[in-house]
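Review session, final week

We close the course with one last complete record, chosen because it touches almost every idea we covered. It is GLPGLI family protein, a protein from Pedobacter flavus with 267 residues. Go through it on your own first, then we will talk.
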Amino acid sequence: MKSLNLKYAIETIAYLTYSCRFKFIIPCLFMVGWYSPILAQNRVVKYLQITNFNNQLDTNYAELLINGQHTLYKYGQTKATDQSPITDLNFERVKLRDEKGFLYYGDYEKGFYYNREFLLTQPVLVIDEMLSINWVIDFNTTKLILGYECHKAVGEFRGRVYTAWFANQLPEGYGPWKLSGLPGLILEVLEHDNELQIIAQEIVESQVDFQKPDEKTKLTQMNYVNKFKKKLNQLTKYLASNSGGSKLFQISSKSKFHVLERSLFEN
């Protein structure tokens, strides 16, 4: 009886997998952000990253380094001069950065991100637990990116909705920034308010070595959010008190933070 039950279970799983793949019904393992890190190769994916907060474009070259179950996404070291896929780059935004820039180190064995962020001008190490993204995959919609057939997926992460395009031919479940969990490497991302766009420019098969970023100040994700909001509030009050009554620096309880992880900063 046990062998029959095992045979029935195997046949059931096989049927569900077949149905989901060819009838475009997404299995539960995709809905919880499943991927297969065992299949991950050593690669470097070069992206163009564009943020568009408050009609101020910020365009950067970015790279995703993949080594087994560890990744490093980095940007902010240099400015890009290419034309933006969203609109023409006719506005240069001044940002305080250093030679290291922003670093997002993914440890998929332990399930944590170790990120080099900025607390206004101070670099800090932010430790953030990886969260599964509930991706809804549309296998019926495809487009070609860098010669790879990519499928469409839509998911919500921390207050924003993203459309991602991933390549089944590249079996890593990784992607730029903190977006991952699809059955293929993410090559393009578009945030639904058009405030973030990330587009792969080149994929290089290469052995890469990198280290977890380290800074003197180490914070959990929520500690970082709380400290950031406090410092920004203090800065805004200081500017308001020294602006001669200018409305540019008035504080409103309805003001929104122009950050990607919107839900963390608005709570």
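Two points worth writing down before the exam:
The chain is about 20% helix and 40% strand.
Residues 1-38, 81-94, 251-255 have pLDDT under 50 and may be disordered.
Good luck, everyone.
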